[in-house]
Amino acid sequence: MMMKCPAVKVYTASVDCLEDPSLLGKWLVRVPALRREKAESLRNPAVRRLSLGAGALLTCALLDHFTRPDETSWDPAGPEGSGKDTNRSLLTEKISLLRLEEDEHGRPYLPDHPEICFSLSHSGNRVMCAISEAGVGCDVEMIKETGPGSSNISRVARCF
After folding, report:
1. Distance (Å, rounded) from C-alpha 97 to C-alpha 92?
2. Which segments in the chain show pLDDT lower than 50?
3. In Å, how far are 77, 78, 140, 144 from 41, measured between CA atoms?
């Protein structure tokens, strides 16, 4: 018997645009509260942009998840999706109100929507979000320059 593998959607972006304070402020109100609080607590502006950027991608992924193929949207706050049509700005507002928590390892999850699995990652100026109906993980890493004098070369030599 062949098992069906759930679809995984992957979102990536640069956070460079969040250097604009007005855009940063617009996204702060669109992400779930836990992500907003985390971003606001960070003192380093680059790290704050990464945290907020990961939350913004999660918001985009959830918008896609709760939007029906015929371009009308489902109400994520309703039980199992109430089927009530709504516009995307209202849906974005409802997504910002979703309860987001972290497990014992610091990984975020949606306790009221266990059917939605996602993973967030960030490095350098890039953020990534993967979303699925089954467990999922993602990782993004900046490629560091290497050369004859680089410590990366000696690390690789030790490993291999």
Report:
1. 9
2. 71-74, 77-85
3. 27, 31, 23, 28
Distance of alpha carbon 26 from alpha carbon 66, whole angstroms? 21
- Nearest of 41, 51, 47, 49 to residue 108 by alpha carbon: 51
Q: How is residue 13 written in tokens?
A: 């972006």
SS3 of 148, please? coil
Which among 146, 115, 145, 150 has a CA at the least distance from the CA of 133? Answer: 115
Amino acid letter, residue 92: T
- What is the Cα–Cα distance from 67 to 74, expressed in whole angstroms? 6
Question: What count of other Cβ atoms lies within 10 Å of the Cβ of residue 96?
Answer: 20
Instruction: With CA atoms as reference, report the closest residue to 65 among 21, 19, 6.
Output: 6
